[in-house]
Design a protein that fits this description.
By secondary structure, the chain is of the alpha+beta class. Helix content is about 50%, strand content about 15%. The protein has two domains: about 1-85; about 85-124, no CATH class. It has helices at about 20-35, 60-80, 95-100, 100-105, 110-124; strands spanning about 10, 40-45, 50-55. Helix 1 packs across helix 2.
Length: about 120
């Protein structure tokens, strides 16, 4: 039973420069494969802003990258650490930018301030 399902991920915005949308779609396909005991060859991304659909082949390279990201996220969750946000161009198209507020972290100088206090105490 190969190629019966073709997952489609609907995005409100524009296509992104990185592979994150493809990785998300591939992960969804891999879940469907595991649940249904089938192989899925491709899916599609549909972008609302451009009203454009992009076909995505689930080749070995994308599948390996997806598994790597899944492993990295698993390690991150197990560590209990929350990584700091890194503001960049990619933030402009992120649906979580308001919650993450990566620009605020650019202005956060508290760690340097505290380190300087300890340095002053050591120097005295």
């Amino acid at each position: 039973m190969s190629g019966c399902l073709k997952p489609v991920e609907y995005k409100r915005g524009n296509p992104k420069s990185g592979d994150w949308d493809k990785i998300q779609l591939c992960a969804q396909a891999m879940c469907l494969e595991e649940m249904r005991g089938i192989h899925i060859d491709e899916g599609a991304l549909w972008y609302g802003q451009t009203r454009h659909r992009e076909s995505v082949l689930f080749d070995e390279t994308l599948r390996r990258r997806t598994l790597t990201v899944i492993d990295e996220v698993r390690q991150l969750l197990q560590s209990g650490d929350t990584p700091p946000p890194h503001y960049g161009k990619h933030c402009q198209s992120c649906s979580l930018a308001d919650e993450c507020q990566p620009k605020l972290m650019q202005k956060d100088k508290s760690a340097a301030y505290v380190a300087a206090l300890y340095q002053e105490a050591e120097d005295a």
